[in-house]
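ARCHIVE CARD
SHELF: 3
SLOT: left
DATA:
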Amino acid sequence: MAGKRIEARHREPAQWWADATGALAMGSLVVAAALWLHGAGLQAVLRGGPEAVTSVGRVTGLVAADLLLLQVFLMARLPWVERCFGQDRLVRWHRGAGLWSFWLMVAHVGLITVGYAGSGGTGVVWEGWTLAVGYPGMLLAVAGTALLVAVVVLSVRKARRRLRYESWHLLHLYAYLGVGLALPHQLWTGTDFIGSAAARIYWWAVYGICAGSVLVFRIGLPLWRSWRYRLRVHRVVWEAPEVFSVYLSGRDLRRLPVRAGQFFNWRFLTGTGWMRAHPYSLSAMPRNDELRITARAAGDDAYRIARARPGTRVLIEGPYGRLTGTVRNRRRILLLAAGIGITPMRALLEALPYRAGEAALAYRANTFEDFALRAELDAIARRRGAAVHYLDGPPPRHSSWLPVSLAYLSDRDMLHRIAPDVACRDVYVCGPPPWMEAIRLALAEARVPADQIHSEDFGW
């Protein structure tokens, strides 16, 4: 039976916003290449020799610079961009742009050095030294490049797994400093910048837009909202082994533009570590006088937050995330959660509009004691006529979203047991990345359309 569409789409940005944003991003790369062509870059390549090598080095540098700025723009937390694409997709694009810009930057450095060495009849090593110390802004560029290299290396998945979130997050902030140091040499000595008024206008404009976006949306707006709502810790409650909730009070919270399912980046002013922001979803429907987050006590910062005293000031960035009712297509819903991924699901189970029998929640944990917020989930289910399924047990050896005790069932079969009409439901998913991948495969096998699957990766 086909699901009935509900009226929530009008709160999402129109599709043309997403199309226009994507077109502008791609257009910036076209402009960078066009400026290289305008500066006789192609003619230099056709002439061959060291001049051709230098010219290719120029265009790789221009595209690398443009991609670096796109990286900054993607994570500047512009509200309409975030609503159009969601943080998961923006993070993936940010990483992709970062890798491409890194390798293009490496190519730029190598090609320019080889090209200049060939034109001047000097050795490559000597030419590299001369460029670094003899040209304005180049020492800054060397330092910025070193920082960017370090960030890229530490962003590789194997390296990230060896770092605590707190350490990785702090080191990742050096990417902003790296971009700030690496790009100015283009303004001072870049042939494709100083030789063209159009190029100067373009590059100053995109630098200004990116810097302004960071200042306004990553710094200014969070500071204003933190001052405006004056959030403080009200109390901390332990919900399950290694899981705690923080209740926060504030001023005029009914005006805070947040929906169930969204998350903030939180900074608890408990002393050390306050500079590191942590993304935590709301674990209850926002109320006029109270917000609540629920977190797993993993890492030094989480234990520090769990020990926060009543009255501790809290700074916020956000709200972020599209795991809300605004993306909903169908009347019936299925919520799938694992571990601490239950936090936005619990808020959605309470807040989304549905009739009795139209909502189901499946919650995966390693042991029954690990089910956080279980009493609240049961109370909401009784009050609203929702079905809640607890799936506890260790994971199987093969990739599956089910515990080993249910290994005799296929992932798709279990979905149909929980919701026989799963293909006609909106499915909200949140949990650890490997579990999420198993869920997505099962949903694809169950023929759930992609636009009915809404997820938020619980990972970094």
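SLOT: right
DATA:
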Amino acid sequence: MEQSVKGRLLDGYDRTHDRNGVSGERLATLASVGKTEDGGVDRPGFSEEEKRAKQQVVEWMRGAGMDVRMDGAGNVIGRLNGEAGGPAFVTGSHLDSVPNGGNFDGPLGVLSSLEMVEAWRETGYVPPVPVEVVVFSEEEGSRFGAGVMGSRAMTGKIGDGELDGLMDFAGRTFREVIGTYGSTPEEFLAAARRPDEIGFYTELHIEQGKLLEQADLPAGIVKGIAGLAGLHIVFRGEAGHAGNTPMIGRRDPLVAAGRFVHDVSTLPSEIGDTAVATVGKLTVSPNGSNVIPGQVELTVDIRDLDKEKRDALVLKVRETAERCAEEQDAEIAISQLSSVDPAPVSDEIRDELRDVFMEEGIEPMELMSGAGHDAMNFAPMAMIFVRSQGGISHNPAEWTDLSDCVMGVHLLKRFAERRMEKMARANED
């Protein structure tokens, strides 16, 4: 019989990490609902599988002494009252997944936050300000193609017009899907909270890359989340017979697109070390083996931590596309699919995190998040990454050793306690 995820985690666990009320045994329950045959999970946003996973976490939250509610966006909010009132220290992540995804992306942040609360209960620690552990809805965007929906709803960064245009993979409207889930678009938008209710947000997450593994470090400090710009580009030429159309005079949009794809790969290095650009989707029409294509559609994903550099890269990509089209006498149409600003972490917060890492005996390595996270919708915010084995993510092979996960909890806990003390002093002033 195949060993469970919990069994595999516990097999290599260094139990010396069980201290200050933190338990690796408790944290090891990562996969439960929506398990696939490959050992991954399949929990689309606003699905029955995601809802059941949330209900399990609700039970654990109540068992940890938290007051629990679900808002109109389906976000689960577990609240622990502090010694005093004021804005809450918020932490958490998501439970939805990509199709046949991994066991750690999202759930680790939720369960680590809950484990921190359990550790406080065991040691008798009472936080100086209210604490909220949140499970956000539809972070991945696998349902509607629109990510971080729950956190955008909570922070008022999503509008009625966007909801009206959403259609899921089965052709159902957002209103239909959210209605089946037990809410309405109006209640979804009403999940927006006042800015003074949330004082700080922190998220623990797997790295989904190889930098920490290459540096042989269990965890690292996120210095910011890259801003995304998405472009949709269409090259149009003249379809024709592959055998009867001379090479001279052809207007082949696939040649233009091929040169463009190659040239795009060289552009980020002209901008900076953190810039990236990816052609991830390409459609050739009519896509026949003996037909010169008449049209090629593609998308370009452009990211950087610096907004000005990201925008400069977008301009270079546009200029390159226009040049490649002109060289083939092809027509071109370029449209913007998306634009999300970068979310940098302040120097002050990174300094705090460096102190916390050194107190735990870990070299404070800083790295950028190329992927989007719920944290990008909050300010101020902080993120901690833990090491990913092989950098694999969004895949059943996604793996992080339990010792690294628990070290992440210790870092999260120590940072939360320091940050909450600052919040309490600010409230007194």
